[in-house]
Amino acid sequence: MSKLLQDAVSEFSKLPGVGRRTALRLAMHLLKMDVAAVEQMAGSIARFRRDVRHCEVCNNLSDEARCPICQNPERDRSTICVVEQVGDLMSIENTRQYKGLYHVLGGVISPMQGVGPSDLKIDMLIDKVASGTVREVILAISTSVEGETTLFYIMNRLKAFPTVKVSTIARGIGFGDELEYVDELTITHALLNRREVEHP
Questions:
Q1: Could you report the per-residue pLDDT of 53-70, keeping only the tens digit for each?
Q2: 142 or 45: whose pLDDT is higher?
Q3: CATH number of 3-51
Q4: Architecture of domain 64-197
Q5: Please, what sign has the CA dihedral across residues 19, 20, 23, 24?
């Protein structure tokens, strides 16, 4: 195998979910593309990694200090939907059923992976709720063991705000499912049928 091809396969293999066979297929596909198109693709990836920022309000990815969702005056600022990752936010946005704001945690609590509450944007969420403008927090977190741990941790923190309604998306989403890969109709039903969580 060509050293250049080996290098390309090696780089593609570093991506999550991409094995050597898929990496080889991707590398071979690049050979069929026009050189200018490949250079444009590489430039876009480099610019994305170099210039993308996290929204200072919700932790979503953005080109500016604030993402377009947080800048939109028509969004309901009294409702915050808490998600694990940006991909989850995008999945919910694609349903076009939710009109509030978001808060991206940046992951879930996972002691096995060395991820604790302080590694996530939970304090940022609590500060937002403490501002007094939030009436409902929707917890749209996956039903994995780590997700449930994170959900209960956040619910415990939110007990300090008894006037704030706390709800979870309806569990039409199967246990262990990643929100990012759930179809839009299922997410829509889960959002519309969310249930209020009573403060313990």
A1: 999 999 999 998 999 999
A2: 45
A3: 1.10.8.420
A4: 3-Layer(aba) Sandwich (3.40)
A5: negative
